[in-house]
Design brief:
heterodimer, A: 303 residues, alpha/beta, 8-stranded mixed sheet, 8 strands, globular, B: 390 residues, Rossmann fold, 7-stranded mixed sheet, 6-stranded mixed sheet, 13 helices
Chain lengths: 303, 390
C-alpha cells in the first residue's frame, strides 16, 4: 500500500477483510494539515490496531475506556492549551489537531454523556463515529444505532419477532442541538465527500462531528468483497443520506435522482434476511416508509 | 508528625478543603478536571475562584461527571500535563473504572478525596467507605488527620506521584476535616514549587514527532507481566515516600512517617486508626497516661502501599491491640483490622487484636468511647466479633 496513504495508520492491523473503518481512519487523518493526536474508545478499532507489542498508529494515540472518548480528548486538548503557555511548548509551538474515534456503541449509548459534555464545553476537536450499527466487537449485540428490523444476538428474529423493533436514535439531531459549528453524515463508499467533510471538520474552531457509515462484514453477513457496494447502496436507497449541518444550516451533499427501494440495500445482508419472508412483507413496507419520511424531513431542512 | 514550628512561616485558619485548595494553588497544576460533589465541593469552589482571579495558570475543566473528571485527568496526564482532581463518596465510586486505568497507565495524577459514606441509604457525612471501596485500584493512598496534614500530604503527594509514576489519593475525613476550620502553617510558595519541581515526562501524547500508543490491548501473553510490574512500582513507593517526607521536613519543619507513633514506645495497650479521630484518641491517651495506664496510638498515614513490616515492629510489645475502622467490609472483618492481623501474622508476634467499627455516616466518636476501648483492652474484655461504637 502506498506510504502516503499509510502515513498515520499502518497496514498490518488485524481488522477483518472488508471492514470499513481502516479506510475511514486513514482518509480522515490524512486530511489534517497539522499533527494529530488520537483518542479511541474501546471497540473493534482499538482491539485490532493496538495488540501489544504492536501498534498500527503512527500518530500519538490513547485508548482509555469505552464510554469516555469525549472526556479523554477534552483532557488532552486542555493539557495542550495549558502547556502551550509554557516556556517549551509541545510540538515546538505548532498547532495540533485532536481526534476522537469511537464506534456507535461507544457514542450513541455508553459514551453519549461524555460526548455531550465535551461538545457543550466547546473543546477544539473532531469526533468521528464509525457506525456499524451495533456492538460488533463483542459479536453483534444491538445498540441504539442498530436499524429497525435487524437480527442481532440480543434482538434475534424469531417466530414472534422481527429482530430489533426500535428505530435508530437520531444522533445527528442530538449533536446538532449542542449548537456546534460543523457536523456531517458521511459514508466510506464516498471518499471525496468524506475527505471534504474531514477538511471542514479540521478547519472548524471548536467541536466538530462526523458520523460515518462503516459496514461490518462479519455481523451484517455479507461477502468481504462487497463492503463498498453495500455502503453505496445505503446512500443510493436514501437509508444513509450524505449531508452536513454548518452553523445550523443543512445541506444534502448528494441528491439521488431515482432512489432505489430500501429492499435493494436490505437484501444484501444476512441480518435482514428474515424480512424477506412472506409474513414480513408489511415490515419491509414500513421500513420504506421510515426511510422516505426521514429523507423528506431532511429535504425540508435543506431548503 | 513531629512539629518543629518555625516562626517565619505563615499561619492561617482554613478548612481542610481550603487547605487542599491552598496546596493546589501553590502546586499550580496544568489541568484540574472536577465535578461538584459534597463535601469536596469546597475545594473546587475555592480553586475556581483562584483561577478566576488569575492566581493560577491551571486549565480547569468543569466536566459533566466524576467518570469524565478522571477520564479527562488521564488524557491530560498522558499529554504531559500535571493533572489533579478532587472527589468524594459516590463520585469516587463513579470513577472506580477509571482509577484502574490511571494506575495501569502509570499516570501521576493527584486526587484529594473527602472521605464519605456511600449510598444506600444516602448520607453526605464522613466515613472511610468510599476509600476502602477503591483500595485495590493501584493508587497510593495517604490519610490525613487534620487540615495541616491535608495541606502537607497534598504537596508531598504531587511529588511522590511524579517520582514513582503512580497516582496518589490524599484522603481527609469528609466534614470532620473538610469543613472544620483549623490553624495550619503553610510553606512559602516558591519553596513549595522548588520542592515539587518541573514535571517533564519522557513520553507524552503531545510529542507528535515521537508517537506513542497508550493503553494497548494486552492478552494472555503480556497482561500478567504488566500487572506484576505495577506491583513492583508500588513496592518502590515506601522508599520514595521516606525520601520525600525527609525533604519536605526541610521546608516545613514537619516530618512524616508511614504512620505516627503516639506514645507507643512502652505502650501495652494500643489503638490503631486513621484520620480525624486520631486527635481525640491522642487526648484520651494523654489522660490515661496521667492515670498511669500504658496506652498508645498508632495512626496510619500511608495505607497503600501498606507498611506491614514496620507496623508489626511498632506493635510487637503490645499486650493487646484494638483496631478502629471507619468502614466495613461486609461479610468479613473490616479493612484496617485485616491489614493489622496480616502484618502481625507475618511475624512471630501473637498479639490479641480486637476489631471496632465507629463513625459510619458521620456518627461522632467521643473521648469516652475511645476510653472505653482502652478499658476493654486493659480489662481483657475480648470478643471475636466486631464491636460497634454506636
Amino acid at each position: 500500500m502506498n506510504q502516503e496513504l499509510n502515513k498515520n495508520f499502518a497496514s498490518g492491523h488485524s481488522a477483518c477483510a472488508g471492514c470499513g473503518f481502516p479506510t475511514i481512519v486513514r482518509t480522515i487523518l490524512n486530511e489534517s494539515k497539522y499533527p494529530v493526536v488520537v483518542a479511541n474508545a474501546t471497540g473493534c478499532l482499538e482491539v485490532t490496531s493496538t495488540l501489544y507489542p504492536f501498534t498500527a498508529w503512527k500518530v500519538p494515540y490513547i485508548h482509555s475506556a469505552f464510554e469516555n472518548a469525549g472526556a479523554t480528548i477534552s483532557g488532552i486538548e486542555r493539557a495542550y492549551k495549558a502547556l502551550k503557555k509554557k516556556k517549551n511548548p509541545p510540538a515546538g509551538g505548532k498547532k495540533i489537531k485532536f481526534v476522537a474515534f469511537s464506534g456507535d456503541g461507544g457514542t450513541f449509548d455508553i459514551g453519549l454523556q461524555a460526548l455531550s459534555g465535551a461538545l457543550e464545553r466547546g473543546h477544539d476537536f473532531v469526533y468521528v463515529v464509525y457506525d456499524n450499527g451495533g456492538y460488533m466487537n463483542t459479536g453483534n449485540q444491538r445498540s441504539s444505532a442498530t436499524p429497525y428490523g435487524a437480527n442481532t444476538e440480543t434482538t434475534p428474529a424469531g417466530s414472534k419477532t422481527i429482530g430489533k423493533i426500535e428505530t435508530r436514535k437520531n444522533l445527528m439531531e442530538i449533536v446538532n442541538a449542542h449548537g456546534i459549528n460543523y457536523l456531517a453524515q458521511a459514508n466510506v463508499a464516498y471518499l471525496p465527500d468524506l475527505k471534504m467533510k474531514a477538511q471542514k471538520a479540521f478547519e472548524t474552531k471548536g467541536p466538530s462531528f462526523l458520523l460515518v457509515f462503516s459496514p461490518c462484514t462479519n455481523n451484517w453477513k455479507f461477502p468481504t468483497s462487497q463492503y463498498v457496494n453495500i455502503a453505496k447502496l445505503a446512500t443510493e436507497t436514501n437509508f444513509w443520506p450524505l449531508y452536513e449541518i454548518e452553523k445550523g444550516k443543512y445541506k444534502i451533499n448528494k441528491i439521488i435522482e431515482n432512489p432505489k427501494p430500501i429492499a435493494e440495500f436490505l437484501k444484501t445482508q444476512g441480518r435482514f434476511k428474515h424480512l424477506f419472508e412472506k409474513k414480513n412483507r408489511k415490515v419491509l413496507e414500513n421500513i420504506q416508509e421510515m426511510v422516505d419520511e426521514e429523507w423528506n424531513r431532511l429535504v425540508n431542512l435543506n431548503k | 508528625m513531629t512539629n518543629m514550628t518555625n516562626a517565619t512561616k505563615k499561619r492561617i485558619a482554613l478548612t481542610g478543603g481550603a487547605a487542599a485548595a491552598e496546596a493546589l494553588r501553590q502546586i499550580n497544576p496544568d489541568v484540574m478536571a472536577v465535578y461538584p460533589i459534597t463535601p469536596q465541593t469546597t475545594i473546587i469552589e475555592a480553586y475556581a475562584k483562584l483561577a478566576a482571579d488569575g492566581l493560577v495558570n491551571t486549565e480547569v475543566i468543569q466536566v459533566e461527571s466524576e467518570h469524565s473528571a478522571m477520564s479527562a485527568c488521564i488524557g491530560a496526564s498522558a499529554a504531559g500535563a500535571r493533572s489533579v482532581t478532587a472527589t468524594s463518596s459516590q463520585g469516587l465510586l463513579l470513577m472506580h473504572e477509571m482509577l484502574y486505568i490511571a494506575s495501569g497507565l502509570r499516570l501521576p495524577i493527584l486526587m484529594v478525596d473527602s472521605a464519605r459514606a456511600v449510598s444506600s441509604p444516602i448520607n453526605i457525612h464522613g466515613d472511610h467507605s468510599d476509600v476502602m471501596g477503591v483500595r485495590d485500584s493501584g493508587w497510593i493512598q495517604i490519610f490525613s488527620e487534620n487540615a495541616q496534614e491535608v495541606y502537607d500530604n497534598t504537596v508531598m503527594g504531587m511529588k511522590l506521584a511524579e517520582k514513582v509514576s503512580l497516582p496518589v489519593m490524599v484522603i481527609m475525613d469528609g466534614f470532620n476535616t473538610s469543613h472544620s476550620v483549623e490553624n495550619l502553617e503553610t510553606a512559602d510558595t516558591k519553596k513549595v514549587r522548588k520542592f515539587i519541581g518541573e514535571y517533564r515526562p519522557e513520553q507524552t501524547l503531545l510529542k507528535t514527532n515521537q508517537p506513542v500508543t497508550f493503553g494497548p490491548l494486552a492478552l494472555q501473553n503480556s497482561y500478567f507481566e504488566f500487572k506484576i510490574d505495577q506491583e513492583k512500582a508500588m513496592m518502590s513507593v515506601a522508599d520514595c515516600y521516606a525520601d520525600i517526607t525527609a525533604d519536605f521536613a526541610e521546608i516545613s519543619g514537619r516530618r512524616y512517617n508511614f504512620f505516627e507513633s503516639y506514645k507507643l514506645k512502652d505502650a501495652e495497650y494500643i489503638i490503631v486508626l486513621a484520620g480525624s479521630a486520631a486527635g481525640t484518641a491522642k487526648d484520651v491517651v494523654d489522660k490515661l497516661r496521667q492515670n498511669g495506664k500504658k496506652v498508645g496510638l498508632l495512626k496510619i498515614n500511608l495505607f497503600r502501599p501498606f507498611p506491614s513490616a514496620e507496623i508489626a515492629e511498632a506493635l510487637k510489645n503490645a499486650k493487646s491491640i484494638a483496631v478502629l475502622d471507619r468502614a466495613q467490609s461486609i461479610g468479613t472483618m473490616p479493612p484496617f483490622y485485616m491489614e493489622i492481623i496480616n502484618s502481625l501474622n507475618a511475624t512471630k508476634y501473637k498479639i490479641q487484636t480486637a476489631s471496632y467499627i465507629y463513625g459510619l455516616g458521620g456518627r461522632d466518636i467521643f473521648a469516652k468511647d475511645i476510653e472505653k476501648v482502652f478499658m476493654d483492652l486493659i480489662k481483657n474484655k475480648f470478643s471475636k466479633e466486631i464491636k460497634y461504637i454506636q
